[in-house]
Design goal:
Elements lengths: L2 H27 L1
GO molecular function: flavin adenine dinucleotide binding; oxidoreductase activity, acting on the CH-CH group of donors
Organism: Eiseniibacteriota bacterium
InterPro entries: AcylCoA_DH/ox_N_sf (IPR037069)
């Protein structure tokens, strides 16, 4: 098992969730 890969995927998931929150906030403002 490649731990570096799993940790990298975790970071990508966090970025994706943060991006989704920012998108929803932007949509809510308009």
């Amino acid at each position: 098992m490649d731990f570096s890969l799993s940790s990298e995927q975790e970071q990508l998931q966090e970025l994706a969730q943060e991006f989704a929150r920012n998108e929803m906030e932007t949509v809510a403002k308009h």
